[in-house]
Structures are given as C-alpha cells and as structure tokens.
Amino acid sequence: MDKCKPINTPFSTSCNLDQDEVGIPVDETKHRGIIGSLLYLTASRSDIMFAVCMCARFQSAPKESHFNAAKRILKYLQGTKEVGLWYPGNISLSLISYSDSEFEGCKIDRKSTSGTCHLLGSSLISWQCKMHACVALSTAEAE
Amino acid sequence: MKSKDLVSGLPNIKFQDNRLCDACVKGKQIRSSFNSKDIVSTKNPLDVLHMDLFGPSRVASLAGNLYALVIVDDYSRYTWTLFFAYKNGAYKDFKKLGKVLQNENDCCIKSIRSDHAGEFQNANFERFCEKHGISHSFSAPRTPQQNGVVERKNRSLEELARTMLNESKLPKYFWEDVVYTAAYVLNITLIIPILKKTPYELYKGRKPSVSHLRVFGCKCFVLNNDKENLGKFDAKSDEGIYIGYALNGHAYRVFNKRLLTVEESMHVVFDETNHSIPKIVTDDLECDDLKSILNKNELIHIDTTDSHVVQEPTVSADLPKEWKTPRDLTLDNVIGNIEKEVSTRKFLINFCETMAFVSQVEPKNLNEVLKDSNWIMAMQEELNQFALIEVWTLVPRIPEMNIIGTKWVFRNKMDEHGVITRNKARPVAKWYNQEEGIDYDETYAPVARLEAVRLLLAFSCIKGFKLFQMDVKSAILNGYINEEVFISQPPGFEDHQRPGHVFKLKKALYGLKQTPRQWYERLSDFLTSQGYDRGTSDKTLFIKKKGDDTILVQVYVDDIILGSNNGELCETFVEIITSEFEMSMMGELNYFLVL
Q1: Does this model's pTM top 0.90?
Q2: SS3 of B444, please?
Q3: Is ipTM beyond 0.90?
Q4: How far apart are CA B253 and CA B242, in angstroms?
Q5: Where in chain B are the domains?
Q6: Which residue of B451, B455, B464 is in closest CB contact with A89?
Q7: Do B202 and B186 meet the contact criterion of CB atoms below 8 Å apart?
Q8: Which of B31, B398, B556, B564 lies 20 to 30 Å (CA to CA) from residue B47?
C-alpha cells in the first residue's frame, strides 16, 4: 500500500456500508489491524474521523466491501501525508464549537451520526464523531 | 562400385561432399562422443569442483541419512563425501564445506560443476556462488557424460562400498560409513595416472601415511577408557566392528556391539586375521542378532563370547596415556534419528536471524535474548538502574508470602523518524497474580487527555509560550509502594548465592496494578508541595502563578510538557524536578506521544 495511488476523499459519498452478508470474507486480523492503526491516527487527523468510525463499525465478519473502504482511507492518506494541525499564534482566545448531524445515515438501524469540533481561536483542539444512541424521527431531532 | 566395376549401367556423377543432408541427419543422428582427456586442465586444487548426489538409498544409514553428495576436486581428484537425510541438506552442507576448504587452502573455489538437479540449481546455491565469486557451470541437460569425473567417482565408491559390505558381511545400514571409508582410502591410495601422485599429496602437498589403515569391518576391541564406572574385575574393553576413520580428528570409528553405538576411539585393538570360514559364519550370526536388536531399538547386552573365535588379545603398549577419547558423537550415536537434522537446521536459522539483525528484532523469549550481547547489556543496565534507586531488597522466602512472578519485556525504542535507537529490557511483575486488598488497593491513575494536550498546544501558541518536554527516567520506579509486595527474581539474572530469596519491593515496579497511581501520587504530592495548583477538571495539569507570569505543567504518565511565558520559571522548575527525580531533558517540544 505504500506505493498506492492517492485519492481525494477518504470516503465515497455514494458508498453506504452495511453488513454485506453475501460479500467475500477477508482476513479479520488484517482488517482490524488497519482499523486500529487508523483509530490511533484520528488523534491527530480530524479529517478521517468519520470514515474511520464508519469502518470501525464493521469489524466482525468483515467483507471485501469493508476492506475496500478501509483501503480507500489509506489511499486518501497517501495523498495527504503533508497535512497536519496548524496552531497559529497571536489570535483571539475564544472557544468555538461546531456540530452537525446527518439523518438516518446508518442503513442497518437508521440511527444518525453527528460530529462536533471545538476550536480555540482558529486552532482545532478537539473533535468527535458519534452515532446516536436512539433513532431520530426528523432532521431537527437528529440535530 | 563404379571404380571397382562391380555393377553395370551406373552413371558417372560427382557428389559434393560438404553438404548436410536434412533427411540423413534426421534419420541417423547419434549422440556426440565424449573422449577421455589425457591432460589435467587445472593447475591448482579447488580450481574446479565436480559434484553429484546419489541416493536415496533404500536403507537409512545409522545416522539416518539417505543421500550422499560426492565432491571431487578436478586437479587432485581428492574426494569429499557428505551425507544427509533430505536433498535440501545439500546446500547447507556444501556451504559449510566450501567455507572450510577455502579457509584451509587460503584460496578460493573458482568454479563448481554439477548437473541441473534441483539441489544444485536453486536460489540458495546461486546466492552462495555470487557471494564467493564462484562460477557454477552445469552439464547439458540429460548428459551425465559431461559430469564424467564425479560420475566415475560415484561408480568407484559404490563398487567399493558394495564390495566392502559384502566382504565384511555387514548389514546395509553401514553404507554411509562404507562410502566414507572408501573415499578416505581412495584419497590416500589412488594414483592419478597423469601426475603419478595420490590425490592426498596433490591436494595437501605432503605424502599420505597408510600405516593406520585397517581392514574394514574387522573385529576389534575398544577400551572403555573411563567411559563408564567399571568394577575392578569387569571387562576393560568392548567388542566392536571397525567402521572407518573419525570424521575430524585422529581416531577410529568403532561400532560398539555391547552399547550398540558408534564410538570414536584411539584405544582400539584390531583383529585382522584372515576371514576363515567359521569366522564368516559367526559374523553372519552376529549381524542377524544385531539387526533384530536394532529394529527393536532396545539396548540389550549381547553375549559375544564365541567359542570358536578364541583369539589372544594383543595388548598394544604404545597407546598414549593422556589421549582423551573424543566424546562428541552427536552426529552418529543416535540410531535412526532423522529429526535431529531438522532441529539442527531450525536452530541454525534462528541463530542466524538473531545475529544478523542484532538490535533490530524484538526477541520473544529469554533463550533468544541470552544469545544477543546487546540485549544482555540492556538488561544489565536496567538492573543497575534498579540498584541505584533502591527498588527492592533481597529477603529470604517465607511460605505465607504471595510471590508475584516476574518476566522480561523487550522493546526497541524509536526516534521521531522511526529509526531504532535503543534496546530496552524491563523486568515486569505479573500483575494477574496480585490479590486485591493484600497486594494493592486503589489502581486508578489520571492520565492527560489528548484534547487537553492539544488545548495546551493551541493555548501556548496563542499566548506565545515556549514549550519544553521532559522525560522521567524509569518514572514508575519512583512511586513508593504502600503494601508489602514480594516478587521473584527476574529470570536469567538470579542471584546464584541466594537462589531461594525473593525481592521485597520498596518502590513500585512495572506491571503491578498500582504502579501508575503510585507514580502519579508521588509526582502530584511533590508538585503541590512546591506550590503548584492542580487543575480542577484536568487533574494532570499543574499551574503556578507568580505575578503576571504563569507556568503550565502537563503530565502524561512520565512525559512532562511545560510551558511558560517566562523562561526563568521553566528553569527553576527544571532545577527542582531534577533534584527530586532522575530526568532527561528532551529540549523544546517537537515530538510527543507520536502525535
């Protein structure tokens, strides 16, 4: 994978992962190994947070579609090796938080996923991606 | 026919003779002929080595081998024979022999010649040849004639071996010894027709001595020579069958009929009397005996006092008294042990791996470690560190103690580029043996959240703080332990004078459940005593204010980040903390927790 072609996005907009029971099974250990490493990387890379969390949901009986999604993240990282967090100096010291949510993103149980991030001035200090615990009935409720 | 006028009506046609007729070739071609050479085409030993493998023999030899590799030096026709149980042993054995030969003669093997068999034509051989600059030529496919030197030698050896086995009426599993002896004898007695010298002289440059040669398969007596604890009136020697000359060293190889093992001994008396008819009969019987016993694979004492072979054993007086019998018979003293070969190879590979990547590998078990000096140094260093800060004291063991086992953990430390810079060995306690209430109480230890670290980074960027990074050496060992905990001595480094003792811990050790907490407690106590305030929501952040200046100290187990708008505050912090703990100052923050 260290000579793979870079790709612009970590996750396909059209791709919606599900259990994929008919897919070809792949090596579980390898798949989990990749996801574990990626989860570690989310400590310093907020851009792959959603994609990694999505992949991490399908760790038992991974199929080829899940493995491909994980590989796509690696391909994305190949193209964005130089990207990192930037902490500029001499700006206002104000804490800003953003959050957003999608609606019924998960194909299996129709739960929504939301993401938050906190900025101090213009430096990103914390981020999160979380699938809701309950099913939202409207976009407003999801948010 | 025309010139002799034998038939009539034949037209007078002239044929052009230098013309190749396709049809004739297709119909009549035969193999090209191979003429024997009457010159020696090489000038020095080891210029060209011919080699070939024969086998598998239907009967495994005593050492469990089935194949024999015959190597003939082109110049001297000196012959080496190597034996192995599997064909893939050829490469390993040849590599070994090749190195020995090059060393012995101080010159290089220039070229080797073999057929296209898989045991010669493979990547390993290619690599070996490439490394030593040996050209490897092959005979043409299906043309053993081109490998004639060694094929002829094979024939000589096999013929000799068959004859010797038949003559001595020995069972077939002695074939390895027979072939080896045949090659040995040929080397010192064969006369190369063109050069009129023996291979031994051509190869070694001195005349061979034949005074020690004996009749193969003859009866002999081998002195016990303090091998066993014999009684005063026990027989001093065992009867045996003479089966050749020691592989390395000056001794005879004898098959001991009583112990059913192959021995190498100098103290042998031979009975080389002509094989009379009764002798052959007895031998036959004995061998049948032998065979049945060997099949059962049991050690049974055979009574070999044959009534009709009454020989006065001659005592040879010139045996050197201080000569020691070579006892390392690992190669041959086990009957039919094929697995031995496999385990040896595995061991060798393992050994090579650990030697080749000295500090690059993280060993899995202690046996691997003890072979690698780098790791042993790392372990010793760690124990010295323990002694320096008085982690433990050695106390005698009492049965009521709950002893917690220890083991070693090995890790390679990497720098920010991922290059291995240090081997680290640590003895750790096996926490799963600990009992709550006795060995530990509270185990929770606060650790800085990554968000908090990032917040600190962002905050210091905005405020223009300069951040420094520090590392506490063996941080965890600094924590005092409140409970009485006993651990066993680390494996491989036991105190030989006091083997039954155990260590009583004074300070926390890696692997105990409470150690991170003990360390955190110690550090936070120290910092609060120095006037630092512990953060209310994040317990790992310590703040000290002095007028307008602030110093922030973030603790992540043993990594400390400190930042201040005033450089002096940092310096005083470094000063006080190095007076309390052994620290390594890493300088300005550039690499933290692989972030």
Answers
A1: no
A2: coil
A3: no
A4: 6
A5: 48-204, 219-306+325-340, 373-588
A6: B464
A7: no
A8: B31
